[in-house]
């Protein structure tokens, strides 16, 4: 498709796949961030096993040797389907001939946006670093409280949502708490720590078969995680949350329960499902626009059984390849075969040497599933260097239980600002005068 | 010194050395952050060559196998020299028998605190990550402007202060701009970028000999840095700064000019110098308190010529060792030999294969000095794993000019917060209605 302007919104798995498959077309890739994020490993940044730079690659670096792919770091405010224009926050509007809409999703609080303050979710690197610091600071505070009072409350983490993210976070937190953090916080005892995984439905990992869900429950409970099923959360406050009819005191609630597609999608003006996803045609276009595609977490694309495909990387990647081929071959709308997702299986890790995997009729759990998980994720990582590095981190972590990424620095800045204020504050001066007088 | 409580304020080079030398005493190490920071490499985080986790180690991890050393993450508000108590922000006061005060310094704006907003400095990991994002965003914005207008202003970085930090930042920025960033931003031309290094005095690197200063000037100018000597800065505003009598337009000003010791020191109630450092006795104690030591950047400790020792890591480390020995051997005040700094030399790096070194009568510049710099810094890094990792990063960077740490994520969160607001904002709704009506 020469001389046509292809615009891609979003540098996630879907958008990146399209851009990489159309390297010789005139492609403009717009992302709000400057990097592609390997989201499946985000929970490892949040739980101190990896550093942010290990799972993110600058988009400009990825396309450095492909001059036809231009990268713009900007935020898309709206899409004008009639004029075929994309409105940006910081740049002038961009005209397109072909548009791929792949802005992804954020976590959703089912209408309770205020809950985010007390129960942050995990979608971006900023979320992950912020959550990591929250977790580390919670341990610091528990240690201080234990030294001060000798007793102190339990340190309770509550993870809301029993899908893969919730399960992975719960397993990783249990390991940090019970093994890696133990020697670091000598005043905390094992039973000071409680980890609750709360699920509104009747089982965790509902996308997997019931026997694998049961195996995940056993593995998590063995690690010390308490699992509450059929337990919808009805309120989240600063000091705790209401689970079913019970109030659980916790200042460390993590949200892994729901997604909502990007609000940008409403500007397309076509039907959306209850999660804000666009009801795409069978060729992933929107009605009446054969060259506007919606893919990834933003698309509601039904499988053979009529259920929407899950919001996972393989779906986005396959949709990206499918769309790129239609564009490369300039396939006319009536010539297109519908998109079909080839489900190669699902994996969820529960912790060190523990995972569940489901591939066609094959079911794996325990160490074999975990090894499979490692191999798959290592080889999915884009860049050779990061592959080696992440592998080294994991081997190191496996051998030593010594997370290499337990640094708090965002909080540091807040404190130093507090200190600068303090320099001029009456309290500081009073204390100074005190000591001068006494001296 | 059994049964005595040693309290150390600050886990920098000085405080860490004391704690490591007194592993069997009853030591309490207090730091505002949870990590020891290898500050000499901080500019490499700010300029995308290293990641935060590469140059920081959790203090708890360092002392994991030393149960006598307890770590508390807290902020010291004041020191009571009479009651021998340390007041903390989040914990109860702590009594000490022996106190080591090593809280370090912040950058100082010589009374113009408002300048910090426009000209951030570089002391903490938060500073470095924030500066890194500022630099990367400046390139992104210049690229967008160039695409939009075809012309656009020059992208001007101004570094205020010609000491080692300023020189290192200027050299690293020039390399990012001219080599590594070039292929990433195809619309920016080489002469779109200007880097100014501004020094109020008559030469850069004033701690080195004049011939090495001159070599540093040549090397920096060769990289494209413009150096302005005898050019005091009299005003810094949001859109530029006044250098001498000239107004230079720049929204990217970096402060590397002055330090001020921690404001905590005033609570000691003893004489301080103009930079807020404590005028210590010859055994690094404060007057009248033989077991209260002040070391590192917080101490004004004169050398044989009467000049204060520089605020560098080797001074802090040697002072830490000296103090630890006095404590271990319980040396009475009248038995103490004064602290003498053994100057093993100075190093400053200017960029890839470029440095200056001064060791006794030996003067090195260019590649030999840079290799020496690499070896010294690699071996000073505490932990074996980080050594290997930083070495790998450097080799990678040297071979590829491909900085592995060009991720913007703090800014991402701001944007996504803006977006969440936008979801409910009139502008968003209007645009949505627009497109719905047109459709």
Characteristics:
homodimer; about 450 residues; alpha/beta; FAD/NAD(P)-binding domain; six-stranded mixed sheet; four-stranded parallel sheet; 12 helices; about 35% helix; disordered C terminus
Structure in words:
- The structure is a homodimer of 439-residue chains.
- The first copy, chain A, has twelve helices and 25 strands.
- By secondary structure, chain A is α/β, with parallel strands linked by helices.
- Among the domains of chain A are: 5-32 and 74-108 and 259-335, FAD/NAD(P)-binding domain; 115-257, FAD/NAD(P)-binding domain.
- In chain A, helix 7 links the parallel strand 12 (193-198) and strand 13 (225-228).
- In chain A, helix 1 packs parallel to helix 8.
- The longest helix of chain A has 25 residues, at 125-149.
- Chains A and B meet through strand 5, strand 6, helix 5, helix 10 and helix 11 of A and strand 5, strand 6, helix 5, helix 10 and helix 11 of B.
Note poorly predicted spans of chain A: 412-439
User: What is the CATH topology classification name of the domain at 115-257 in chain A?
Assistant: FAD/NAD(P)-binding domain
Biggest sheet of chain A: strands, sense, closure?
Answer: 6 strands, mixed
Which CATH class of the domain at 115-257 in chain A applies here?
Answer: Alpha Beta
Overall geometry of chain A comes to: globular
User: Which class of secondary structure composition applies to the elements of chain A?
Assistant: alpha/beta
Strand percentage of chain A lies at 15-25%
Strand order of the largest sheet of chain A: 5-2-1-9-21-20
Cα separation of the termini of chain A: 82 Å
What is the CATH superfamily label of the domain at 115-257 in chain A? Answer: FAD/NAD(P)-binding domain
CATH architecture of the domain at 115-257 in chain A: 3-Layer(bba) Sandwich
Mean pLDDT of chain A: 85
How many helical elements of chain A? 12
Q: How much is the radius of gyration of chain A in Å?
A: 24 Å
Number of strands of chain A: 25
